[in-house]
Amino acid sequence: MSKKSDKSEDKQDTMEKIVSLAKRRGFIFQSSEIYGGINSCYDYGPLGIELKNNLKKAWWKEMVQLRDDVAGLDSSILMHPKIWEASGHLEGFTDPLVDCKKCKKRFRADHLLESKGIKPDFRQADFKKHKIKCPECDGELTEIRDFNLMFKTFMGALENKASEIYLRPETAQGIYVNFENVRMSANKKMPFGIAQIGKAFRNEITPGNFTFRTREFEQMEMQYFVHPAEAEKWFEYWQQQRFEWYQKMGLNKAKLKLRRHKNNELAHYAKAAVDIEYDFPFADKELEGIHNRGDFDLKRHEEFSGHDLKILDEDSKEKYLPYIIETSGGIDRSVLAFIVDAYTEMEARSGDKDAKHETETVLKLHKDLAPIKIAILPLSKKEKLEELSMSVYGQLKENYMCAYDTTQTIGKRYRRQDEIGTPYCVTIDFDSLEDKKVTVRDRDSMKQDRVNIKELRDYFREKFGY
Ligand code: ATP
pLDDT tens, 325-336? Predict the structure, then answer.
């Protein structure tokens, strides 16, 4: 029986267990740990990188491979500094910041207001009116200051104003400035999209909640260029597509919602915006934003670069600047959501004869996302059995990420695989030497199939679809 807990008092506990499992099993480590760690930076371990890569592959397949109207791109992180003037980031990519005069802690003013149930459409005066104090020590807070979130560095040998350059705070701008290059080289007709996965950097004032808000993270973004008259239609279309994708990849529908931004919440570039939110143990939080950006971006890049980015409609001979519908998601946030959603505590399963624990953890990840697809578990370390097991392992790892484990009892090995979400375990026993068959155990149904070694490839092709 599943005991997946929803009680709010258990939520913190659940998060702690997930962070601990992530470290113990090699999904996610604190960065620079042996030096005491560095705040808000994380490293993905051997299983974490598999999960992350699988998520990227699934997104790329859905957004690029299966579509004729989207092409891929990998643009550079360092770009011409004028791009950030044109995009509005130099001027407007700021968070409102306050410091506590007593304990010196730093907070985001909008978050403090939100925590008091006050809408974040505030100004200095509202902040004073509500008499907001330091949530840590009740001390007095400074005035609100705007803090630019872009990381600045210098390009070349000189450190002066002329050599200032920024780490990109989003991957989107790399797409906009390549709009013409991609359209011409890939011969795309309107409407079409450009997809990109890559790192982005934001000097967040209050990072936190594990990998949810970090200063270095990866985005998966697709910018769809449309005729202005069709923008509303495509905005609706992409909301549905993206909302359904998270469900298709296994997220619990009851924990997902689409939240439309009110007009006073809209970013400077957006005509309309919707967030896909997931009910994390710490709050309902954004996984992805879908925005109707109008012609803001291309217009600004035309203005700042002096380049004509308009399209000629061959039928009507009309020249127009496309509107952009953006789908902008976070890889790290999604990885965290998929782990949280898959995390299940169950009564120890009777199928594992030597189970001594009352509960066990099963990571019910979608098969496409699971870091290890198949574990090969010989029942004993006897030479003949290992020989046969190694040949099964050698055969399967050509097509699937596999693990080979001979340590400890079979029950413990099953539990270890369940905990990391391995969908199938293949056990090789002494009968296998005679009948050339192995036992395949299914993580979720616990059903066991006896399969001829020669037929294993077909068996798994049917299970995984490849
Ligand atoms: P938030 O309101 O949480 O700061 P945002 O609205 O600024 O997010 P966008 O600029 O729309 O986010 O970025 C698109 C996506 O990139 C987000 O939905 C999120 O998944 C991811 N993302 C943004 N900032 C971070 C961050 N600091 N750490 C991890 N992922 C992030």
Answer: 999 999 999 999
